[in-house]
Specification:
Elements lengths: L6 E4 L8 H14 L4 E4 L8 H4 L3 H10 L3 E5 L7 H13 L3 E4 L2 H6 L5 E3 L8 H9 L2 E5 L6 H10 L4 E8 L2 E4 L4 H5 L18 E4 L5 E6 L2 E4 L2 E3 L4 H6 L4 E4 L6 H12 L5 H11 L5 E2 L1 H4 L18
Pathway: Cofactor biosynthesis; ubiquinone biosynthesis
InterPro entries: Peptidase_U32, RNA/ubiquinone_mod_enzymes, UbiV
Family: Belongs to the peptidase U32 family. UbiV subfamily.
């Protein structure tokens, strides 16, 4: 779908940050970040929900006053009856658009306008048209899709709003088991919320010591940080309308400003990339999936400085 101006979105916080930190984060986003859409809500682990959920209504109002469109994100894996009950209540009473990250949520929202999140596997034209036919107004595509597949989906459904993840560690899988808890010899039921120790995820290494992936509670994410700032123009050309940034424990207002400046033609992508290298130092950048190669690779070696190598 072609829109007059590319839409910059901020995905939900995937990590177990302290409640006050989340509140301060969203207040600053409301006041300062040049993003158009903000997703808010717990996506990874329902055990985290009671701590932050009471603050969400006030934050939604704050974000809306700041000119942001707010979307309520939901769990990516429904495993317990209480989670299902809570989801039904959310689907029935939410006053903002809902992002469905599980097919059970899609079923509950059937016939109502909603967004399909990147945790739902929309890999081909049939799946995309099925989701649109059930009421989806936007689909956030999975991170593994190369440019050729994204272009094919945009061509198959030119009326659809397609969203692509352009910054952040990429969500790869969600499990019923908690890797963070297991790493501390704990069970999920008695996890002691150790995932809070790693605000950007816990790095996982191979037996040879190579940094390989990262984990965030029950979620497996990429070790590298997706950075498609040099691909924004190409994404627009092939029909993508929405561009998602994943929140990290860095200056996300500055990150969003760089992406917005490149989108609006105020800054060359290579200059913005250099600034991102200075802002984000906990892992290297990658764009492999989009380029059709291994996800951890970065296909613009000419952009990488000694700082980001």
């Amino acid at each position: 779908m072609t829109v007059s101006r590319p839409v910059l979105t901020l995905g939900p916080i995937l990590f177990n940050w302290p409640t006050e930190k989340k509140i301060d984060f969203y207040k600053r986003i409301a006041d300062e970040a040049p993003v158009d859409v903000v997703y808010i809500g717990e996506v990874i682990c329902s055990k985290r929900t009671p701590f932050f959920e009471p603050a969400i209504p006030e934050l939604i109002e704050k974000l809306q006053r700041g000119g942001k469109t707010v979307v309520l994100s939901t769990l990516s894996l429904i495993m317990a009856s209480r989670e299902l009950k809570q989801l039904r209540e959310t689907a029935a009473s939410a006053e903002v658009m809902i992002e469905a990250n599980d097919v059970s949520t899609m079923r509950m929202l059937e016939g109502k306008p909603h967004i399909v999140g990147p945790f739902v596997n929309i890999y081909n034209e049939g799946a995309l048209n099925y989701a649109l036919g059930k009421g989806a107004v936007r689909v956030a595509l999975p991170c593994e899709l190369p440019a050729t597949s994204i272009a094919a989906l945009a061509k198959a459904a030119p009326q659809a709003e397609l969203e692509v993840q352009v910054f952040g560690r990429l969500p790869l899988a969600v499990s019923s088991r908690c890797y963070h808890a297991r790493s501390r010899d704990l069970h999920r039921d008695g996890c002691q919320y150790v995932c809070a120790d790693d605000p950007d995820g816990m790095t996982v290494e191979t037996l040879e010591g190579q940094k390989f992936l990262a984990v965030n509670g029950t979620e497996t994410i990429s070790y590298t940080i997706c950075n498609l700032i040099a691909e924004l123009a190409q994404l627009r050309e092939i029909g993508v309308s929405h561009f998602r940034l994943w929140p990290h424990d860095v200056d996300m207002v500055a990150v969003a400003t760089l992406f917005r400046d490149v989108m609006d033609g105020r800054m060359p992508a290579i200059d913005a990339y250099k600034e991102l290298e200075r802002l984000v130092t906990f892992a290297p950048f990658s764009n492999g999936y989009f380029s059709g190669v291994e996800g951890f690779r970065f296909t613009h070696p000419e952009m990488v400085s000694d700082l980001g190598a």
